[in-house]
Specification:
The structure is a homotetramer.
Chain A lengths: L1 E6 L4 H10 L5 E7 L8 H4 L11 E2 L3 H4 L4 E4 L5 H11 L3 E4 L9 H8 L6 H6 L1 E2 L2 H9 L3 E3 L3 H16 L8 E6 L14 H4 L4 E2 L7 H13 L6 E6 L6 E8 L6 H11 L6 E3 L8 H4 L5 E8 L4 E8 L3 H15 L16
Parallel strand pairs in A: 1-2, 1-4, 2-3, 4-5, 5-7, 6-7, 8-10, 12-13
Antiparallel strand pairs in A: 8-11, 9-10, 11-14, 13-14
Helix pairs in contact in A: 1-13, 7-13, 8-10
Chain lengths: ~350, ~350, ~350, ~350
């Protein structure tokens, strides 16, 4: 059994990790770190866990965490910086769910996050935890920067096209919708039920941090620097991200050709479901599961591909992908603990 | 492996059965019966099943179903009547999710359902599938009448009090709220998103059929005939039932005494979670799981117990309880395939 | 033109007052009091008011408020206590939306609110602002205690029966559902969108303060002291209260007889709509309007009336009723500014 | 008083017209046409109208409609074709809410709607009912093609930029979100509450009819033919459209410069609210009102404007704009009956 710690266990990504890991046949949950709820039982904080998980939330105790094989850090931005080097030093595998270890270039991080990076060497060592792109590197990593929610959806939705050479890279636009769990459990007026229900809004237009993470991977895939417009929107649902991606092509194509391209690219990927031509993803199809669904359209009037991709922001966009990474790290079947169909209802 | 058929697989209770059974380690799903979608793959009808379950929906074929060990019938009221006797005859275990096989007395059925019962002998033989009350009988049954959603919530919420002798039985009121999956997948104006969201209503006041089913079990528990007011309400959510139950007591008591009574009554029941005094159930705590949560209050001004119980109407109120019954029928651990924490989010 | 001040203008009841008054043909809004947003324009706080209302939020300035004819106080519980006597002294009419001036008996207030009342003489003078019951007293009042949301719904739903002499008064139960605006705009985990949507819960079972306010008016109507069970529930919608009221009768009756009784009782009341037998209210029918809808059922098995009533908690349950009271106070047609159909959608 | 008929009164756009007109001080509603509910009172179909509007729904009777001054046709696509010429002939003003009379060029209509136009001469005569662009023509029109919901939002959001000469016209993308009322009241599985809530999806990608209507007005504004990508999305709310519009610029600019441009363009338009730089529209700010809110952003990395616009699809996107057009047609103040703040809650 893999002994696991979840640090930041009572946020929405953290508790989804706990939910998945508590059902994982090869994992023993040992430590639930939570500053806000230290001393409380996890099932006092999330009452769905009564009769399921009998663990206390606790303040960070590095010695105790060190008895684990792996730590998932779902800590507030910044808090993870001091903890992670200590855990690595003590020999744990670390999967970090913050934005701190996702970048190839420390300058990009510092520009978009507006601060110095505290462990640039670890950043250089860390592996970007997107199995569909970096499975081999993940296998031997000590530290994984688990991708963002918007970014996973946006990257998996466009990489096949960018790698194919069909894409023009100068007018790519990613327009994305997110459920409210993406904003976390913190209190703010904008997430009050009465302010949030029956409301749609765009936010951080032109300057959301995930832009830089998407651009990094788009550039890697295209082999040239790519800059994009990325616009996130908040809509009144809990789970789910839907990204609509516009890419001009450098020659005529068809929905069928593009769909084939995607199907081939992902033919060995269990968690990516490329839909048939004319069939489009919906967040309901992926909610509660680790799947990404992708539908590919082609606008022949404009010689433009329009790709729609959907995932559950706290599963494939956070906790599920983290567990997928853990499975790879420990040589397990990648689907272990993640092979379920989603709720639908 | 238990070979299983789900007849009526594409309704909401049916597809939840499929979802649970597709993750059940001891079950092999063999047949998905669906008149409306016969010939389609299940993952065309519910796209969350792509990469998970590769089965076609099909018209009823008794010979094919007969190769199974068990059939779950989630058919429209009436449709199950002719099918079930044939299945029983061919040696299958049958768990029926309709109201047809839940009654001790055929007259009660005929009065509340307004029609003759087609198989009164089978009704007499059938066992009411509430494991917490009838586990021993379930073990050897051929045919199980799986309880209704409102009824499971109402019965488990009051039986300990009714059996204790503390309850006066003449002014019991059950006021219950249900999510919209309870109404099924059929189209009707009242379930259109725009009519349903931001709306609450009572319906079938004084005459909902579940009244009779609750009264049967309340009477069995109390040892005297009990008549109640039962009022169902539709509220704008998908999953969940919350029942608030008012019972006058024949002597003074306290919330603590009553909570103890409930905790003892259910001390060996994994799927019933009696909350501590002052802690009340919410549908969010049980959604997606097979748990029933119960909170007990006492109004000393009125010498009245007020009990609140919550469950997921399509899990413990339908598909989950059916799988729990199947586990008992086949000698499995009752929790098999059902031991998960609920979604919360 | 009536010059009006709204103190506590940026809470949910306050802003609904502003919305209604900004469309009222006989009112000029002069002062918007808001401690939290003092110095901001109202349309920075509620952006729906841009191009509609060009007023600043301001800290309480008694001299400025004194230039008005009327003040609506929608202040946090307690804050209104010192302000209101000063306003009365300066000759304003005051309509208070808190619980402070709704009681006949200061002892009842002090028992249920757990503190001394600061102005018992004003409490004695104040009039309970339910026009359907106390229109004549309201006309000449200086201070009106505007009724609570649950209470308006519960009282108007039962008073005709209680006054008729048909009701037994010892087993009355009021089970009520509320939208989340009822909880106000303050931040708390329970009102976070992700915690609130897809969730139903009961709260303050056996001890909600509105119990005492309902009991007061039930007792007044029945002519004997009445004690009830009142259970509030929070459900995932913004606006609306639905109350289901159970009353045993002292002789046989029928839905038709009871409906007639209600129709006669309210025949001159524009804002009360008694539905025909078999037709039940829904919150969608009243949302955004000042109407209360009432449906009356009869359970002949139990000789029990079951009444369902619905209103919009921030209109007839707060701001709308306050404006109705203002219209009466100033001799206007009671419907002025309130004669609209509700949103439905 | 203007005597008005609403044909198709019981659909969602129709009933919103009835709601607005029943509060309009210069209008007398005479005829409510509804094939589906002919013979029923309007307040049986929409119970919010009890005590407000005492009119029957009726089958189309041209003679009776002819006694009106104006007819609003909110009929299913096609049904309006035969009715409208008759009404025009009899001297009524007609405001048509379908797509039939919105086009400058019959060929564009026929290509996107896939059928011959039945009254091409009337199409040539009809005026596109967007007051902000065509107020003068509207004044004297007999027949107004009331703009679509997505189109109003998309057009008003981009026209100032297109007219300014700053816009490059070859990579314009409009990504839009709609509430479910946009789909109408008809029953379909996709609009069942349980399928719709907690779900987001794109639909009709690359081929939605509104594309052609937007392109027509973008071309008119730019003075050159413009082709765009338009992607509609369905999200779980009732009312509201939010459009995010991407336009490359032909020189460097700034958010301030662009915002100024918009503010000047709309300085005399009551119903268009251009937000200050950095302030973005939300559908909650416009729901229930006739306002369009616009926020302008600039991405200096990409020399690209990103404009966000929001409106209520059944008010400014349908019924409200129709009433605005009627006010112009009859020489009334354009705000009459439309000057309210929106619900917010």
């Amino acid at each position: 059994m893999i002994k696991a710690a979840v640090l930041g266990a009572t946020g929405y990504a953290g508790i989804e990790l706990v939910r998945i890991l508590s059902n994982h046949p090869e994992v023993e949950l040992r430590v639930l770190g939570s500053h806000s709820f230290a001393g409380k039982k996890i099932d006092e904080v999330y009452k769905n866990f009564t009769h399921i998980l009998d663990l206390d939330c606790e303040e960070l105790d590095l010695d105790k965490v060190s008895e684990c094989d792996i730590a998932f850090t779902a800590l507030p931005h910044g808090a993870s910086k001091t903890v992670i080097p200590s855990l690595i030093e003590r020999g744990l595998k670390v999967i970090d769910l913050s934005g701190d270890f996702r970048y190839d270039d420390v300058k990009v991080y510092e520009e978009w996050y507006g601060e110095k990076h505290s462990s640039p060497e670890l950043l250089m060592e860390s592996v970007y935890g997107m199995p569909e792109l970096y499975r081999d590197k993940i296998k031997n990593a000590r530290l994984i920067g688990n991708p963002g929610c918007y970014t996973t959806c946006s990257i998996l939705g466009a990489v096949p096209l960018l790698k194919s050479g069909l894409a023009k890279t100068d007018n790519i636009i990613v327009d994305a919708l997110s459920g409210v769990t993406g904003a976390g459990r913190g209190l703010a007026l904008g997430y009050h039920f009465c302010e949030c229900t029956e409301n749609a809004k765009a936010y951080k237009v032109t300057n959301h941090r995930h832009t830089s993470e998407i651009e990094q991977e788009y550039s890697n895939a295209a082999g040239v620097p790519v800059m994009i417009s990325f616009t996130p929107h908040l809509i009144p649902m809990k789970r789910g991200i839907l990204a609509t991606i516009y890419v001009n092509l450098n020659r005529e194509s068809s929905a069928e050709e593009l769909t084939d391209l995607y199907k081939k690219f992902y033919e060995n990927e269990f968690f990516v479901r490329v839909r048939d031509t004319g069939d489009l993803p919906e967040t309901k199809h992926v909610a509660g599961s680790n799947f990404v669904d992708i539908g590919v359209c082609y606008d022949k009037r404009l010689q433009r591909a329009v790709i729609v991709s959907a995932l559950d922001n706290i599963v494939k966009g956070a906790a599920g992908q983290a567990v997928q990474n853990m499975n790879i790290l420990f040589g397990l079947n990648e689907k272990t603990g993640l092979k379920n169909a989603g709720f639908y209802l």
